[in-house]
Write a structure and sequence with these properties.
With about 130 residues, chain A is an alpha/beta fold. Chain A has 5 helices and 5 strands. Classes of the chains: A alpha/beta (about 130), B alpha+beta (about 400).
């Protein structure tokens, strides 16, 4: 039976990017559900609400680094401050168009971050992620 | 050989001879009794008119007892020494050189002592003075030598410093050349980027629009949405590229000139009224001073800051912008203050980064280049820019422009 994740979160400020990624994930049947948020505060509002009502944490978060106002690094800080043991089930993969080796090094140095990938998501990329990390 | 007998006989002649030289003399016999004392000696010893003949020398002058051994030595035939005798007078200390000569009797035996005192006060004082002057001269010479050494050291330091400066200048010339070359490359790059990149972008936006209208009837809702995405993205990219080109052009071939700030703002505000016809805004700038700067760049700077104040205005209030300036000897500091939405403290430095935006595109338009251009312009003038702000209350952008001296 093909592996399938339960819940995936997309965090990116660019509407077409979220639209595109969401489409790919649904087409591939990568997960049962997928939610897209346009910024850190929106994503954190959602995550805070599931801490309250006891819903499951997402299995995977695709996080864009470069967002206006609060960016990907700010999200990671906010995520760390979440008070729930369930969050250890959530894996974060950073998506970015930047090829800066310094940023990659910084990202992989943070324990919450699982991997660092260039946009856009593709079917092949999703296969690789499923195989490697789940 | 001097004998008392012959001396006593010749005393008058002797007297005449010594009177001129102011020599005091005294004749003693072996028993130390005074045989004769001349006028000058009496003067010296302050014994004027006193009866001294045949008196015991040491009774008359008890202070002379210290020479007793010396006298005995000379009477015994030993060599005489020149003695320097000093005595204090009200007008000062005086000095005498004293000779002690044995006298011989008939059979050649020593039978007395001739003491001759010759005043050497002047000479002695002069000698002391000379010694003092010599010491001073030596001190002055030492000082001169150390001055000379200091001077030589200073010369060496100056020489070293000069070499150092020459090396720095060489280094500066090399760096300056490199910078000029780099600037030329950057200008070329910016030009190429703007032209060669804009063209394919125009193709994308033009043809996505054409496709939308051409296939109006056959496109699904999603299809139309995708084409809108394409058009918006390519349009955005065009703005980003032209903004980048603008940024790279700042300061190239710029010439400094005197700027009448009030007149400049009169003109800018007319433009803003046309750009934002639906917005009521008040702008006070009447107190702004004239100053020297790069006119085109300064116009861009004020335009960007005021545009931001209007764009990020508080919708519940009348947009109020006030501009004023403070001057020191070295700088003008300009303040652009508004009552807009404000900027959170954690972003107050980041806003000056190129392409850094704080709000989603749907809420506020813009490329995120404006403030980085302002920063570049201010730094072109040798100044600094920063912002203080309170969320919901407003922001004050302030920057310095060094005065020309």
């Amino acid at each position: 039976m093909k592996k399938k994740l339960s819940k995936v979160l997309l965090i990116d400020d660019d509407r077409p990017t979220n639209f595109f990624h969401e489409m790919i994930i649904r087409k591939k049947e990568f997960s049962e559900s997928v939610f897209a948020y346009r910024g850190v505060s929106e994503a954190m509002t959602y995550l805070n609400s599931i801490v309250e009502n006891g819903e499951a944490f997402p299995d995977l978060i695709f996080l864009d680094l470069n967002m206006p106002g609060l960016d990907g690094w700010d999200f990671i800080e906010a995520f760390k401050r979440l008070d729930s043991p369930l969050k250890s089930f959530t894996k974060i993969i950073v998506l970015t168009t930047t090829v800066s080796p310094r940023e990659k090094k910084r990202a992989l140095g943070i324990p919450e971050i699982l991997d660092f990938k260039n946009k856009p998501l593709s079917s092949e990329l999703l296969d690789e992620i499923l195989q490697r990390h789940f | 050989m001097i004998s008392i007998k012959s001396l006593r006989g010749e005393l008058n002649i002797f007297d005449i001879l010594v009177e001129k030289r102011k020599i005091g003399y005294l004749l003693l016999d072996k028993a130390m009794n005074i045989q004769f004392m001349n006028k000058q000696m009496r003067l010296i010893l302050d014994l004027k008119g006193a009866e001294v003949e045949n008196q015991y020398w040491f009774s008359v002058m008890p202070s002379m007892k210290r020479y007793h051994e010396l006298y005995q030595a000379i009477l015994a035939g030993r060599d005489q020494k020149l003695v320097l005798f000093e005595m204090d007078f009200p007008e000062g200390r005086r000095y005498w050189e004293v000779d002690h000569l044995p006298t011989t009797g008939d059979k050649g035996a020593i039978d007395g002592l001739l003491i001759m005192a010759h005043e050497v006060t002047e000479r002695h004082r002069m000698s002391i003075k000379m010694r003092e002057q010599l010491a001073e001269l030596k001190r002055a010479n030492d000082k001169l030598n150390s001055s000379k050494r200091a001077y030589v050291n200073l010369l060496e330091d100056v020489h070293e410093e000069k070499n150092h400066l020459l090396r720095l200048r060489e280094d500066l010339e090399i760096k300056s050349k490199r910078l000029r070359k780099s600037n030329v490359e950057l200008a070329q790059f910016a030009y190429i980027a703007s032209h060669d990149l804009q063209e394919p972008l125009r193709t994308i936006s033009n043809f996505s629009e054409l496709l939308k209208s051409e296939c109006e009837s056959t496109l699904t809702k999603d299809g139309k949405l995708y084409l809108d995405f394409v058009y918006e993205a390519s349009d955005r990219m065009r703005n980003l590229i032209s903004g980048l080109l603008d940024y790279s052009r700042i300061g190239r071939r710029a010439q400094k000139n005197s700027i009448c700030t009030v007149k400049l703002l009169d003109r800018l505000l007319l433009d803003f009224q046309k750009k934002y016809p639906e917005v009521t805004f008040q702008c006070d700038y009447s107190s702004l001073p004239d100053f020297v700067g790069f006119p085109e760049e300064i116009e861009k700077l004020f335009t960007q800051l005021i545009d931001n104040s209007i764009k990020f205005r508080n919708l519940e209030q009348i947009c109020t912008i006030s501009l004023h300036a403070e001057g020191t000897d070295d700088n003008w500091t300009f303040y652009v203050q508004d009552n807009g939405i404000g900027i959170e403290e954690k972003f107050q430095e980041k806003v000056f980064l190129i392409y850094k935006r704080l709000h989603p595109r749907e809420k506020y338009k813009g490329t995120g280049i404006g403030l980085s251009q302002c920063k570049k312009i201010v730094e072109l003038h040798g100044g600094k820019i920063a912002v203080t702000s309170e969320i919901g209350k407003g922001s004050t952008f302030y920057f310095t422009i060094p005065k020309l001296h």
